[in-house]
Amino acid sequence: MRPGGQDPVAFLYFRCHKAAKLVYANLYLIAEAKPVRPMTPARAAALAKAMAARRTCRECGETGWAELPKAHRTCEACLYTAGLPADSYLHDYLIGEPTLTAAEHAALTEVSRTR
Fold it and tell me: What InterPro entries does the entry give (predicted)?
C-alpha cells in the first residue's frame, strides 16, 4: 500500500536507543491508500543488479551465490590471499564450514590464554 497523495492522519515518534536517535513515521488511513505500483522491467533489472553487487567481491570481481559481509565485501579466496589468519571467525562466516579441527582450535585457544 502507498499513501496516494493523502496527508498523514497521525505521526509516530519513538527513540531508537541502539542508533541513539529519534525515529518518526507518518501514519495514513488504510481505506484511502492505493495499491503498490507494479514492478516494471527496468526496476526489476535495477534491483537484480543491486542484489548482484552485494554478492560481488570488491577485490577480484567474482559474483558468488551468497551475500558477502557488508564490512568488506571480499570473497574467501581474496581474504586468504590478503593474509587473513587461519583462526579468523570470518572464514566460518563466509563459507559456513570450520577451517580448524577441534584440536587445532583448542591449541590456538591455549596459546592465546598463555599470552
Answer: QRL_CxxC_CxxC
DSSP-assigned states of every residue in the chain: -B-TTPPPSEEEEEEETTTTEEEEEEE--GGG-BPPPPPPHHHHHHHHHHHHHHTB-TTT--B-SSPPPTTT---HHHHHHTT--TT-HHHHHHHSS-SS-HHHHHHHHHHHHH-
How many independent structural domains does the chain possess?
Answer: 1
Look at residue 18 and tell me if it is in a domain. Answer: no
Q: What is the pTM for the complete model shown?
A: 0.50
Per-residue model confidence as pLDDT tens digits over 56-81: 998 888 888 888 888 788 887 887 77
Instruction: Give the chain's residues under pLDDT 50.
Output: none
